[in-house]
Amino acid sequence: MTVWDDLTGQPAAIEVFRAAAESSTLPSSAAAREALAATDAAPTAPDSMTHSWLITGPPGSGRSNLAYAFASALLCRNGGCGVCSDCRQVAARTHPDLAILATDRVIISIDEVRRLVSASQFSPSVARYRVVVIEDADRMAERTSNVLLKALEEPPERTVWILCAPSEADLLPTIRSRVRSVRLRVPSTDDVAALIMKRDGVDHALAERAARESQSHIGMAHRLATNDEARARRAETIELALSVSSVGDAVRGAARLLDIAGADAQAITEERDAEERAAALRSLGVEPGQAIPPGLRSQIKALEDDQKRRATRSLRDGIDRILTDLLSLFRDIVLVQLGARVELVNEAIAADVRRAAENNDSSSTLAAMDAIADARRRIAANVAPALALEAMLVTVAEAGRSASRKVPQ
């Protein structure tokens, strides 16, 4: 068993990081800059090691999992065996030479990056390297990115930075010029299903359906395969979109979608919030059921404020998951309308998809997909989610009625 065994669908990227971890030399800062400057003229050697890395790929492709596997391989005395104390500490995010920045908020603050940059200056305490991981590097504002840029320009000799982001375009050009990029692809349905079966012990049919309906998003596939309520919420979302036919339906449907997103977000955060609060109270010496002393209330209040910010982001993520599911539905419908011989994402309700395809035309389905894209942009621009969802469903209803008048009965 090694730290690479639980990764799936990324053999080329794994080979790059495995070879780099096995390389015994980390170039000096000046040599690293020269190597990066030369990458436009000549490809980087596949087994070369460098100070700064960027892992890009679509959501659910396993960016952070690969980052921590690479960190384990760098910090482990056995090159990433997966079972030693070093690997267990990396898995628990407690290794003394591992620094992490993973935000549950919408943006990463400049103070967080400054603290991380300060921590990166220390020499490793027990391992060959000090490894710094930023999971959501795309959530940094320009001013914050410039703080990180200074650290990437002159990294300590034994510090390795690993940044994760959906794409290179999400980072400043000056950041991109100082990192070695490794792009991940979307894992296949079969790869994700095999991983879910191995890790979660579910049967093949459920694992395959979860992998397909999550569109190969590993985290969502895990939730759909192991959580009955998550599957029920997704099914209700799809059913609601298929049944909307009037403005009244759209208004009621938008309110219900918002409730579903809220319930999904609460299910994800509730247990974690309780565990964090209990751990904080234990660390402060407060017994269960005991009143919090006045001198400690500010620390608990800070934790609660962080949890509220996380809840806001979790709700946004829940809404985006709903929109992704709806997009998969209308994608299936238009493929059936166009006669494409492609596997459906929502194969479990193929009969409903084909019925919707027969009762509408492709132009109305494409209009619905445009409405979903518009809703995403509006929510990202801080339009009230309820209004954005209402407008989306009104467009879906209008497109459906317009198409029904065109389709011969």
From TrEMBL:
GO molecular function: DNA-directed DNA polymerase activity
Biased composition (Low complexity): 37-48
Chain spans, region Disordered: 37-56
Record keywords, A-Z: Nucleotidyltransferase, Transferase
SUPFAM superfamilies, A to Z: P-loop containing nucleoside triphosphate hydrolases
Enzyme class: transferase
Protein name as annotated: DNA polymerase III subunit delta
Species this protein is from: Herbiconiux daphne
Lineage start: Bacteria, Bacillati, Actinomycetota, Actinomycetes, Micrococcales
